[in-house]
């Protein structure tokens, strides 16, 4: 297997350099996984558009999905990145571990989102048992369901890109 070489910031298109500036504003730097997307003329723009699209989920709910799915997919980059983001938006380190293990006792709605995302990632969408019913009983509706599917797809894309490229982890590393 050959090493995946990250493009230098100066070697990417002007359009991608503009997105790099937006990413710096969001994360204080351009995370390596996004630099990998910039290897494609349109990859970073397409993914960034996907990442920043409007949906019915809160930022916290999207982070729960990212953590749960990244744990199922055993992605050390995404777990490190999203653990740091989750703590930055107010989750404690214990809550992050609870989310990753799909054992959320501190918030019933987040627990329902996590269970659904976990099941989707494990079963490729073939939800069994009362998971979907519990999701709806927690106050979510079909629009939320569609947005959870999109969020699962979003993080799975990152998990796959990391698995293939193995870019250096540029956030405090967490253990699987």
Give a structural overview.
This protein is an all-alpha fold. The protein is built from nine helices and no strands. It has helices at 14-27, 32-37, 43-51, 59-72, 76-88, 93-100, 108-123, 131-137, 142-165. Helix 4 packs antiparallel against helix 5 and helix 4 (59-72) packs parallel to helix 7. The chain is globular, with a radius of gyration of 16 Å.
Secondary structure elements and their pairing?
Blueprint: H1 14-27, H2 32-37, H3 43-51, H4 59-72, H5 76-88, H6 93-100, H7 108-123, H8 131-137, H9 142-165
Helix pairs in contact: 4-5, 4-7, 4-9, 7-8, 7-9
Which blocks of ≥5 consecutive residues have pLDDT under 50?
Answer: none
Q: H/E element string?
A: HHHHHHHHH
Number of strands: 0
Please give the radius of gyration in angstroms: 16 Å
Instruction: Assign the structural class, choosing from mainly alpha, mainly beta, alpha/beta, alpha+beta, or little secondary structure.
Output: mainly alpha
Shape: globular
Largest sheet: none
Proportion of strand residues: under 5%
Summarize the structure.
The relative contact order is 0.16. Helix 4 runs antiparallel to helix 5, helix 4 runs parallel beside helix 7 and helix 7 runs antiparallel to helix 8. The chain has 176 residues and is mostly helical.
Question: Which short descriptors sum up this protein?
Answer:
mainly alpha, globular
């Amino acid at each position: 297997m050959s090493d995946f070489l990250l493009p230098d910031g100066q070697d990417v298109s002007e359009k991608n350099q503009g997105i790099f500036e937006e990413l710096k504003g969001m994360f204080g730097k351009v995370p390596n996984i996004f630099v990998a997307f910039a290897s494609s003329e349109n990859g970073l723009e397409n993914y960034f558009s996907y990442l920043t699209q409007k949906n019915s989920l809160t930022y916290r709910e999207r982070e729960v999905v990212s953590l749960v799915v990244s744990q199922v997919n055993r992605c050390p980059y995404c777990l490190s990145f999203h653990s740091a983001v989750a703590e930055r938006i107010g989750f404690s380190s214990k809550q992050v571990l609870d989310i990753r293990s799909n054992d959320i006792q501190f918030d019933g709605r987040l627990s329902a989102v996590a269970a659904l995302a976990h099941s989707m990632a494990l079963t490729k969408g073939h939800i069994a048992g009362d998971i979907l019913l519990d999701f709806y009983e927690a106050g979510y509706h079909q629009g939320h369901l569609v947005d959870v599917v999109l969020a699962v797809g979003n993080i799975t894309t990152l998990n796959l890109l990391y698995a293939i490229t193995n870019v250096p982890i540029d956030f405090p590393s967490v253990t699987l």
